[in-house]
Fold these 4 entries.
Entry 1:
Amino acid sequence: MAFAINGLVYANWTSRLPRLQQLYDIDNGETGFVLMALALGALVAMPLAGFLIVRSGSRQLALISTLVFILSAPLMAYMPNYLALLVVMPLIGVSTGVMDVAVNAQSVEVEKLWGKPITSSFHACFSGGMFVGAGAAAGFISLGFDLGPHLITISAISTLLAVYSLRHFLYDRPGEVETGEGGGSKFSLAIILLGLASLCTMVGEGAMADWTPLYMTRVAGSPEALAPLAQASFSGAMFLGRAFGDFGRSRLGSRAIVVGGSVLALVGVSLAILMPEPEVAIAGFGMVGLGLSNLVPVVFSQASKVPGLRPGVGISSVSTIGYAAFLFGPPVIGFVSDYQNARLPAGMALFPGVEGLRVGLGLVALLMLVLVVLTVAFLRVDD
């Protein structure tokens, strides 16, 4: 439930980015600063959350951070100006960053008691929450809800779900900080390559989560009520992919999952860029979700097997790079999009539509191509 609530709240506010731009009269680049402000808060909070979990356990931290994230999200709709919005976003970022770490720590505790790997199922719940959240956002827009009342309603629903579910969290004990042993290095070639693979994958995930609603309205020309369906297509396909990911890996192998998933994501985002029609974009972003769905679990699994490092150290090193890419990738796409628009003479475009955002999402296609080459030529992906 905690993973699903995270995805639910996240999808509802990112689905309304077009309305957020209207409220504060900002462009893609300024929206990038909004996303980066949230990312900075989350990245500052993540190491602190890890320290606090080692000292005190994850239960209390998960309870507090989840409720703070739920209750703080509507604030973004009620700031007096753009500068105030930039001030409140890091505060929301701190809560979501701490929540990510704390509920993942709880999932590890549950997995120990469960007796077999189930972490991918928790991440599937996040994608499922995003799918439901994007659909809910489309419904709120159709009903004429403005951003503020929309987010307040979602926060009220999420609070009720949280009060029910969080009371069942486990009382985990504080643990000792893991350290590497056996002469391994956190910055070995294997870790660097896996970190690069994580970066490519999570930039794609972040871009789809944050920019698809704006792409639908500004490039594909869809009405605002239809825009969240692209995000729903992405997150729904990712949910299905993760739900059946373990079965697929056992039949096809990890290397085939990474290469095939990267190619599928590359084809999907390319279709959306080259044929910017609402129906094509929705289908293309769904292909991206299915392609990316199991790449992070495979990469993290490989990180746990790096010789000379404890599993937790390898996963921590690679996941830090991945989370940074997930948070900072979308703002970079916003900056690239506005820079590209600024360089184009009036009326000049290679394709019809808003050229800049298409170039920005082109970075996702480029990273998927890099990931294919990386996996085939350099990265060892073994079962």
Entry 2:
Amino acid sequence: MPEGTTHSTAHSTGTEHGPSTGTTDATATGTAGGRAGERPGRGGGSATGTATRTGPAPSEAPAAAPPEDPTPGPAAAPRRARLAGRRATVDAVLRNSPLQPLFRLAATRRLAVLAYHGVDDPRVFALQMERLVRVARPVPLAAVEEAVRTGRTLPPRSVLVTFDDGDRTVLTEGLPVLTRLGIPAAAFVVTDLIGGDQPFWWAEAAFLAAHGGTAHSLADCPPGEAVRRMKTLPDGERRAALAELRESARARAPRQEQLTPADLLTLARNGVAVGNHTAGHPCLDRCEGGTVRDEIRRAHEALTGWLGGEAPTAFAYPNGNVDPRADAELRRLDYRTGFLFDHRHDRLLPPHPLRISRLRVNSTTGRDRFDTILSGLHPAVHHLRGGS
């Protein structure tokens, strides 16, 4: 997620939040109407309501447009509005580009794994999912794992919907939409937070830095860049920095209601497979070997207990940071799939089951960008511009 930005309905941050700085959509626009040749939908109507929360902005792949204005306060509002308008224009130009039909055709022969976090705008999320059932074929995690196991490719236009972190809005806002439309999904949860009200560490750090918190390792870092800097630190230093921020900030970060073990069962019983996202969400490539193993194994054991003895078989790398020591531990625990955060499609038969590509999207993504993300045009432009 784009660190250092704020959003009225945001929930978490990070570079899995992508290695690059993301941008949020100016407005969630568009209709769910189909075009000639699209598959008929399986459900009608849209979910309504909003989930207003505080914290850094949700994850979004960077658009081919200028970055967010870093200037805080009301004085920056007109500039932010102009930048948002330019991003919306770029998204519309891409969607109406003559390249879009070519990319859409090519996408029928690739696997699209959508990587969400929370559901900040239920209405727009419903429009996105209604669009999805018209133009693609939503598949469950089990189908991806079966393809990997048997060596048989998935059907054309296969799309897997996933959520990272375990934000409670996946249950309260996302599940009703998914159930109504018959869309399966997967949710990768941070197990240390289950059953409590501790905020995600990156959301807490962003709040504390914005409220005067300081740390030795962040001495020359603007508050809006604190989380980005912390993700580059050795994990022990990251934890120390968070402790210093807690001690020095003028205010404590607001609490955040998290999913409970019972909620995880509800998700699993209603078509949302529950996967491992580590115990505490460190960047594994910044951890010592023992920490890597402990983070994966503790989460694995907790999930196995909460899910009635059913061990998780899928893993999403925190922040998208791959580490070979994590791969080895996942193999020891018989994991079948692992997911990246690289804003790319994968093959209908993923060649590297523990490193399956995913596309960054959020519930505020407008119709134009959503369509070009699905087709692969937006990711292509993003990577052409040097995004990672």
Entry 3:
Amino acid sequence: MKRFDQKRMPRSGLTHGLGVMLVIALLTGCDAHGEAESASTPPPPEVDVATVLVEPVTLRETFTGRVASPQTVQVRPRVSGYIDEVAFEEGELVEAGDLLFRIDPRPYEARVQAAKASLAQAQSQRRLTDVEADRSRQLIQKHMISQEQHDQRQAAALNARAQQAEAEAALTSAELDLQYTRVTAPVAGRTGRAMITQGNLASADQSVLTTLVSMDPLYVYFDSNETEAQGTQTLMARDEPLTLNIGLTGETGFPHQGRLDFVDNQINADTGTLRYRAVLPNPDGLFRPGQFARVEMPVAHLEQAVLVNRKAVLANQDRRFVYVVGNDATVTPRQVELGREVGELVVIRDGLKAGERVIVNGTQKVFAPGMPVTPNPVAMREPNAGNDIATRS
């Protein structure tokens, strides 16, 4: 066996072998680099995508109003006298006809007795004059009395009838005065404090004994500007009752409902507003006259409103935009013009159309226009979310 002798190996063959080995090494290195680069490229980010909604929406606006009582009464006595009794608890609810104050009735009882006596006297006098008048008619026919005597007796009878009627009226007046010594509630409602207490003099038609306000239902008065008023008038023209949502100061949302029952007949030229009134049931006495209340009223109705979730809308200085996901799963920013918020949704006035998809979750994963994403279809609104509660955006 011959020993391998490098000295006998041709130089060209050695050079060729080294070249082959270098090519193999380069190829192997390129393959390894390609596999490493492929392994480090992340997949497109996963984002939640929802389809734009197009549906009818009733838009509402929030106003500040004040609660008022339909009936506010200053209770005054109709007769003068000293207060014998205060028959109510201050601040309590009373029904119409309940006794509030009692004025000393004894002077008025005496007047009633005197009026009855005067009436009895007038009735007696009338009976006498009626008898004389009847006899006079018989005698005049027989020419037994003069015409003058006959006329006097007839006049006396008429005068007696008038005196009896006057006595009856005086008795009625005295009985009314006696009845007025019982000061009762003219309407059902809540009483104020007693302004005149027992033992003090109350003057007829002058002294304020207490105040009384009706409590159920109550009114809520509020003002709307001309633009909103025009939209509400359009809704009212549909002859459908307008239900208003009402909330007290400090309450979350609008837990109470009322009904619009009055719109003023002219716009206030000084403020440019129109006065509205809502009827608010108050069976539990939760509301009180004078309170501030927030009123949510329908101001417009859109038959085909374009809606997206608020989370889909992003801000770039004074501009608003959304990320639209195309059929090729790439992202395109789209400037939009916003309308009012409707629950968790917002009305898009311009910039989107039905069928388009926008990113509602995961917008922070988008770094550049045109980048691919992995869309995860979701609903545009949460289940059972309403679509008719709107505020100005």
Entry 4:
Amino acid sequence: MGDAPARLGVGMVGYSFMGAAHSQAWRTAPHFFDLPLHPEMTAVVGRDRDRVTAAAARLGWDSAETDWRRLLERDDVDLVDVCTPGDTHAEIAIAALQAGKHVLCEKPLANSVAEAERMVEAAERAATDGVRAMVGFTYRRVPAIQLARQLVADGRIGQVRHVRAQYLQDWLSDPTSPLTWRLDKDKAGSGALGDIGAHIVDLTQFITGEQVVGVTGMLETFVTERPLATASAGLSATGGDRTGPVTVDDAACFLARMSGGGLGVFEATRYAQGRKNAIRIEINGSKGSLAFDFEDMNVLHLYDAEESGRTAGFRRIVVTEADHHAYVAAWWPPGHGLGYEHAFTHQVVDLVGAIAAGQDPAPSFRDGLGVQRVLDAVERSAEKGTWLDV
């Protein structure tokens, strides 16, 4: 038998919704994939000693800390996974990179372009010493999205003419839902625009290989006052008698110009009744179209405009074939679909592989900065009521 792979000690900051998803990925990846490094779940960080200790036991971490700076001091931590609100991303990520720790940072990369630029500078300096950084645009790792990107790159739909991208949720539709950190601009940076709109911007640029170069947008806050949260877990919270102001957008819509000349229509909302996590992307090209909806995440629809009109129509592709589709060989027989959590595992696989190979992983912090610039342009456009270049 060969030597066991070298360990990669992981320290994670935050343990709520994203922390739980990342924990599942770190636990699962080495059991299903042959990784060149062995991730060890060394420490998780939270501010409350009792709660973070309980989270460590529940999620599978070896130890708990109450100050993220302790991760930078620990020789048994090689990588820092940042799963905190956006207002802390820059401080934690930059300090970790300067301490020689690899970094995985949740999206959006930061709360402002200026913060994101500083993070890119730190990441690119650290890369010269072999320290790697990646931003967690996890939906890139859905096999159907990988197939869509490959089909576009192969020229199957020709030149991109139109992009229609939506991220639709309804978890804030109830006006009595409590005021959590995601509704506080100081912590979250923006509302639906950054929280979920960032994903469809990244997916559009990833699939098409093009950039959003100009936008005109609208933002709206439908409920401006909500009960203050007395307790929260993930997207759920309990509210008290006092209320506070909502300082972010509830919905964002914008038109865009793509770098290849095509047009884009983007919508992100947490008020789409009945839509739980609908990421819908349709791309129309000169030779065909692609369509995807995350609520049916194992399926991609392809239309070939060059097929005879007698039989032409959207083809439903079940993206679960081990010989043809990314990641699925490690999982189940064809047709046994993957779920939300699998993309996080694939993210770990790609990041660990890049670190072991001495390569910069994707999406990079610079990719995250590119998305941040689009979000910033949409926000400024909505304020001014005008078209802005990105």
